Amino acid sequence: MKSVFYSRFFILLPWVLIVVIIIDIDTRRPSNSSKAPTARYYSPYWRRRIGRAALMRPQPSDTSMGTWTTNQEHLTSLDSHSGKNNSLPIIYAITPTYSRPVQKAELTRLANTFRQVPRLHWIVVEDSAQPTDLVRRFLAGSGVRATHLHVLTPRRYKRSGLPRATEQRNAGLAWLRQQYKPQRSAGQSPAQQEYPSGVVFFADDDNTYSLELFQEMRTTQKVSVWPVGLVGGRRYERPVVENGKVVGWYTGWRADRPFAIDMAGFAVSLQVILSSPKAVFKRRGSQPGMQESDFLKQITKVEELEPKADNCTKVLVWHTRTEKVNLANESKHPQDTIKIEV
Ligand SMILES: *[C@@H]1O[C@H](CO)[C@@H](O)[C@H](O)[C@H]1NC(C)=O
Ligand SMILES: *[C@@H]1O[C@H](CO)[C@@H](O)[C@H](O)[C@H]1NC(C)=O
Ligand SMILES: *[C@@H]1O[C@H](CO)[C@@H](O)[C@H](O)[C@H]1NC(C)=O
């Protein structure tokens, strides 16, 4: 009796494991896989199935590629009327976000900053299986040129101690690379292509950004760096600069990191992002707090970094944290007669 049980058990075990693995892989794809999303949304996974025929090289203002660009005509006319410089490099700000009580408040604060920055394209990446109405409506009324993406973090990565927003930042990078997909007919390698000028910056939704920061990062040639305030258990962290070159890091935490810098402390030129198509944020083998180093290692060296903010002597961005809201008196079934989005 016992041996029958064991033999069945061992025959079934591999199949159970296979099913578990398939379910796990499947949660990384959108559930309605047979249906291509509407043009308004872009999920990094569906374009692969559409194939190369659909691929072309649009201008950043192209709306036909699943880019959802808000208020664009309005912004364009504003730009030309106020004489804004249309040859400025575009700043792409990639913002991972997730649903929580303070989400709309944080996004509002960010939009109020970004609205004042010329030639900024906001890439908002939700950690969700579907784009939420809250973020969609918010971006539509934000007055910022924006693209709304979403990708769900697999459940096995939603543990404390693991890096956050990895999938969302990578989805932002994948979208950019898709937008500027090179035509390989000439047989060129990505490194030989000519790319438009632009700057990519990872703008978490809880930080505070001075407008001057965007002027500084706009001139990034490869990878630029600057100090970040209120981070690492110190008033600030900064790259140490000698003779215009980064030679080390002033930091309160793990100074042995190859790039001891916060996500808010650097920007990368679009050319570098596009010419190193394999550079992504890593889950595998990445220790907590090493996301930045693991990413920058793939695209640059410390001695190549371009110090901004007066040779890294000014704090123009702060790693602020919104206090956890107290909802202790919120009832499970709110008694209000109307439903309000907060
Ligand atoms: C626009 O920006 C480019 C690049 O920064 C600069 O070379 C050009 O002089 C600027 N033009 C105007 C009208 O400000
Ligand atoms: C940074 O330092 C270098 C070398 O000391 C100097 O030439 C340059 O003018 C400085 N830049 C700024 C913006 O202060
Ligand atoms: C919740 O309600 C209790 C009792 O009315 C009050 O004492 C408490 O201050 C409230 N909590 C918050 C955070 O407002």
TrEMBL record:
- The residues that cross the membrane are 6-25
Q: Report the top EC class in one word.
A: transferase
* Gene Ontology MF term list: galactosylgalactosylxylosylprotein 3-beta-glucuronosyltransferase activity; metal ion binding
Q: In which domain of life is the source organism classified? A: Eukaryota
Binding-site list for UDP-alpha-D-glucuronate: 96-98, 127, 164, 169, 204-206, 319-321
Q: Where in the cell is it found?
A: Endomembrane system; Golgi apparatus membrane
Residue positions the entry lists as glycosylated: 311
Q: Which residues constitute the catalytic centre?
A: 292 (proton donor/acceptor)
**What does the record give as EC number?**
2.4.1.135
What's one GO BP annotation on this UniProt entry? chondroitin sulfate proteoglycan biosynthetic process
Q: Which SUPFAM superfamilies match?
A: Nucleotide-diphospho-sugar transferases
Cofactor(s) recorded for this entry are:
Mn(2+)
Main subcellular location:
membrane
Instruction: Enumerate the residues binding Mn(2+).
Output: 206
The membrane topology term of the UniProt record is: Single-pass type II membrane protein
Q: Mind telling me which GO cellular component terms the entry cites?
A: Golgi membrane
Keyword match Manganese: yes
Q: What is this protein called?
A: Galactosylgalactosylxylosylprotein 3-beta-glucuronosyltransferase
- State the organism of origin: Pyxicephalus adspersus (African bullfrog)
